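Note to self: user wants both folds in one dump. Writing first protein now.
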Amino acid sequence: MRTFTELSVPVVGGELRAIRWGPSPADARATVIAAHGITASSRSMTAVAEVVPDDVCFVAVDLRGRGDSSDLPEPYSIQQHCDDLLAVADHIGADTFIPVGHSMGAYVVANLGTRTDRTPAIVMWDGGFPLPAPIDLDPDAVIEAVVGPAIARLSMTFESVDAYLDFWKMHPALSEWTDHLEAYCRYDLGGEAPALQPRPNEAAIRADGRQLVVDTDTINAIQRLTVPVELVRATRGIMNEPGGLIPEEVAAGLDAAMDNLHSETVDANHYTLVMGDGAKQSWAAVERAIARS
């Protein structure tokens, strides 16, 4: 795997962790800052990093409450993630940058793009699409329905790293096991054997998840973007089910309604779009965004 540089970025409440591949922004053709999914970490981006050209500065962040940023305190919110990403850009000296978001991270970068003129284009991987406000539904019930299996692991303990890897190898979306997936899973785990536990902070995850259920302004930020937008949709969902997380008709409707948006569908599931064989096509969307910016 490509080597990276670890970063510690001063933010509200402590230090946010991130990793960087490639040159500094001053020496790069473009700077790209990536935000991961709701229970993931910076290491979900290592497969993408393998296809990033050497002249691009590519930074993957451990969002607040995840990875090496798991101990960062409240506030937990999409808006705080936006502030944290801007702090990362300031820390590395990037006046402008292309923000890329996977899953929940796509909502983060969409909201970021409505708040600053430092993002000349936005890339969303299988997320960030507008959702109708639920009627009389418990936000926690909605979260469980969408990402329940991912959250369920947070309260589990594992006697060894191998036991945790075996747990992930049984996931229906991860039948093609890779070194990148193994590195991601190993990084996800904390504590001491025989009571190892996933590191994501459940309070942070539930706070972010609730906001994406009840806050329509946050959910629908994509529709307020004025810069070029690249939206990549996977054909299969979180459990490798057909149809994908973003309904085909929603992607088509956005394409028709937004002159600044280009969407593409990739034959992958929600995970492998970024962590597997969809990584090359996902990066191609970033190159299109760089060209359009």
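First done. Writing the second protein, which came from a different request thread.
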Amino acid sequence: MRLKGKVALITGAASGIGAAAVERFLAEGCSVCLCDIQDDAGEALAERLGEQTMYVHCNVTREDSVAAAIDAAIERFGQLDILFNSAGIVGAVGPVATTPGDEWRFSIEVLLNGAFYCTKHAARVMQPRRTGSIINMASTAGLMGGLGPHAYTAAKHGVVGLTKNVACELAGSNVRVNAIAAASMATPMVANVLTGDPGNIEKAKEMLGEASPLRGRPGLAEDVANAALWLASDESGYTTGHTLTTDAGFTIGATTEGPAFAEYQPMIREAGQAGLPDQD
């Protein structure tokens, strides 16, 4: 019961990482407001999980929709302690020279501006209470280049920067702001990219497990949900402005093959000489 008595609002809550976080938070005693544009899936999930949840239609590209969702959560549960900005899309895909401007703009609206709107209105209600945890969904594509489409990568770098900057502002109000940078998670969005079918999670797990630096271990939505749980809980009470990776070590250079020079050989010295120098 690490979140007992707390209230969370989770965007993108109808499927994937968001839905996993809803169930994880609920199991730890939290009341949860599920927000999404997938109304049928969101309403069904809230109905299945019971009275400690509610579903609110929320389009994160519209500030008025975000503000209304946060107000609805407070009206139902009386407070807001946790925000998890999990809503996301792959967005515009393709070479920079041919990326349509309208697709670029919409991608940024969902992935970056949506996080801003949610953070803005969560801060509005958290600062007066002088408590709260805001968690932004970033990506390893927000820490490195070459991992995702241009709009997605630019937006996720922006999310990491937004996280750090807002953490500096809100620290004095005891509101913490952190991010999670995930890589290659077996979610419907990734399954669709890998297999063409968002429902083929098992095939995605198999493919991701084969490519994982942690041999045979794919990334799961539950891995991100567990990271979000720690950032949401008082256990991370001295942590703010941090981007926590759930990536099997990819961003530190871990690979399926292992590091270079993994096998023993005599040490290499100057001018191609090997072994320890003569000590005489």
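Dump finished. Worth passing along: The helical segments are 16-27, 39-49, 63-77, 101-129, 150-170, 188-195, 201-211, 221-232.
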